[in-house]
Design brief:
Elements lengths: L6 H18 L4 E5 L5 H23 L3 E5 L2 H10 L6 E5 H9 L3 H8 L6 H6 L8 E4 L5 E2 L3 E4 L4 H9 L2 H10 L2 E5 L6 H10 L8 E6 L19 E5 L1 E2 L4 H10 L6 E2 L7 E6 L19 H17 L9 E5 L2 H8 L4 H4 L4 H4 L4 H18 L3 H8 L9 H20 L2 H11 L6 H12 L2 H4 L4 H10 L4 H10 L5 E3 L8 E8 L8 H10 L7 H15 L2 E9 L5 H11 L4 E3 L4
Parallel strand pairs: 1-8, 1-9, 2-3, 2-7, 4-6, 7-8, 10-11, 12-16, 12-17, 13-14, 13-15, 15-16
Antiparallel strand pairs: 5-6
Helix pairs in contact: 1-2, 4-7, 7-9, 15-16, 15-22, 17-18, 19-21, 23-24, 23-25
Length: about 575
């Protein structure tokens, strides 16, 4: 006799049956799949169902099911899981939209000259683009004699503008009678508004299926939850990821979408630690108010970690992921503690937006690794435009000597020392943006020019940073670390998760979020703040398979503690044992 299916599988089947009915009855729907519910599985099942049902008709009509993804990685996964079916057109949102609008050249030219971002460039040609071809290649906005090049940020607004044209919507529906949207909550707000205004509920419009979870919207530009009279909501009340104790906490946190577990016999572990018993003076300032001083926060982390190890936690990277909100504590643990103090914005180093960081992390470091491993072809591949023409051993020797000297400078030199050395030997050459910024700094005269601009001030400070911190940053950014920022783990899962919640960023204050959640009342104007904090907290708490531990380094009010007790139960709330 076949084994009985699990509660999670039963819940999943109920959701799939409702989804299939919507597809058969041509009703647009939103499948709300909480953390661990198997959202991608449901999306793929929808595509497979439609391929089996409609492939002959789609081929006869020269049509395709459209599947819009948030990332290239998700796109590639879905294409692979549908066996590259010609019945499916799967692309990221921008690529999908460009495939639709590229044929409307005249309308595009008319819309471009009306966009604020193009005002200055349009004036240069008298507000008339003539017969220039409109192209999109991720570059800068430009107008040449025969073409107009769009920026990445132009594609979605132009698509929304064209949605108001009946001819465009007819062609869209004729080409893609069904459109499935992955991670709908992260979809551009303006684009989603266009869908609701011009397509949903209109005769002849495509059938839409939205897959995602508005509680997992943690990026600023996403639309979040979508409501429309023509959308049927389907709750996928399953959790295939986490053990029972973790799922029970998530259900108390989110009673509107309770989940069934895969294994009712599983146990799991949940522990919440707070630092309210610490007796010293806490940090001040808008970003850090109420948090422990840095050294004491690190001490709290180490004490809780030791307690968890005593409870048989395995803190090797294969078993436990440590999640931190701010880069200050994270950087201290990972060996690049100076970088958060150098830059005003973490994105400068965490997302490699600063040209020096991008060059050092993405080009010089991989090149040095390849050189030391004697993979010379790989070294020149990663250097790209810096690669020379090698015809003989005589051509190789200068490069070998140059790379040996660069590797030596990295060991105990500063960032400035390495950059200066590269400027001297010119092997490899610095990118133009890096070279230009270095010249600007060297020529800047504070006596004559006054206060130094922030970009040069940051570069000046960066040059004094030990180069070893660049090596440590690269190791962290490339995933060779048991640590991670909370934003970096959306969609991921780990055996155990130890999360540290504190201050350090104006938009996050988890004590305030817990107070609002406990009162059930969100003050006017604070809705976005509450959702940002709640969603990030939910995403973190839903990552582990077996064990979850949380440490609050900021002081918590009685109301906030009461909220935690309601979600995690009083017996799982503990004070940090300070010395």
């Amino acid at each position: 006799m076949a084994d009985a299916i699990s509660p999670a599988e039963q819940a999943s089947l109920r959701a799939l049956e409702t989804m299939y009915r919507c597809l058969d009855e041509r009703r647009s729907f939103r499948l709300e799949a909480g953390a661990g519910a198997g959202k991608t599985y449901s999306l793929v099942k929808a595509l497979q169902y439609l391929i089996d049902r409609d492939k002959r008709e789609l081929m006869r009509r020269h049509q395709q099911i459209a599947c819009i993804t948030f990332t290239n990685v998700a796109r590639d996964e879905i294409i692979a899981r549908t066996d590259r079916s010609p019945s499916v057109f799967c692309e990221t949102n921008h690529a999908f939209c460009w495939s639709l609008i590229r044929g409307f050249q005249k309308l595009l030219r008319q819309q471009i000259v009306q966009m604020d971002a193009w005002a200055e460039k349009s004036e240069e040609v008298g507000g008339d683009l003539g017969e220039r071809a409109v192209e999109y290649n991720l570059g800068h906005r430009s107008i040449s004699e025969d073409r107009v090049t769009l920026h990445h940020n132009d594609v979605l607004p132009l698509t929304v503008a064209l949605m108001s044209q009946p001819k465009f919507t007819r062609i869209l529906a004729d080409r893609h009678p069904i459109i499935l949207v992955d991670e709908y909550q992260d979809t551009d707000d303006g684009w989603m508004d266009g869908i609701k205004r011009f397509l949903l509920g209109h005769d002849g419009a495509p059938l839409f299926g939205f897959f995602g979870d508005h509680w997992q919207k943690i990026y600023g530009t996403g639309c979040g939850s979508i409501e429309h009279a023509s959308i049927t909501e389907i709750g996928k009340e399953a959790n295939f990821r986490s053990d029972a104790m973790v799922v029970e906490c998530l259900n108390r946190m989110r009673p509107d979408l309770t989940q069934e577990v895969k294994d009712p016999e599983s146990t799991g572990q949940v522990s919440v630690f707070h630092s309210n018993n610490w007796s010293g003076e806490r940090r001040g300032g808008a970003q850090w108010k109420g948090d422990l001083p840095e050294d004491d926060a690190r001490q709290a982390f180490e004490r809780v970690k030791a307690k968890l190890i005593a409870q048989d936690w395995d803190f090797t990277p294969e078993h436990t992921k440590v999640l931190m909100l701010t880069h200050r504590l994270l950087a201290s643990e990972q060996g690049y503690s100076s970088l958060p103090r150098v830059f005003k914005y973490n994105e400068s180093f965490a997302k490699k937006e600063h040209p020096h960081i991008e060059f050092l992390v993405d080009r010089l470091e991989p090149a040095c690794d390849a050189f030391t491993e004697k993979r010379y072809g790989a070294m020149f591949d990663v250097l790209g435009g810096s690669a020379p023409l090698i015809r003989s051993i005589a051509d190789k020797l200068p490069w070998h000597e140059a790379m040996e000297s660069v590797v030596r400078h990295r060991v105990d030199g500063t960032v400035g020392a390495v950059i200066d050395h590269l400027r001297t030997i010119k092997k490899p050459r610095l990118p133009d943006t890096v070279e230009r910024r270095e010249r600007e700094l060297s020529k800047f005269d504070e006596k004559e020019q006054g206060e130094m601009p922030r970009v040069l001030n940051e570069l000046k400070a960066l040059r004094d940073v030990p180069y070893a911190e660049i090596i440590a940053l690269r190791r962290y950014l490339h995933g060779h670390s048991p640590f991670e920022t909370k934003h970096g783990v959306k969609g991921a899962e780990f055996e155990n998760v130890f999360a540290i919640f504190g201050r350090g960023w104006n938009v996050y204050n988890f004590n305030t979020m817990l107070e609002m959640a406990g009162s059930g009342t969100i003050p006017n104007g604070k809705e976005r703040f509450f959702e940002q904090n709640r969603n990030l907290f939910y995403v973190v708490c839903s990552r582990p398979k077996r064990r979850l531990a949380i440490l609050f380094t900021q002081e918590l009010s009685d109301v906030a503690l009461a909220t935690l007790s309601g979600w995690f139960l009083p017996e799982n709330i503990h004070e940090v044992e300070f010395g």
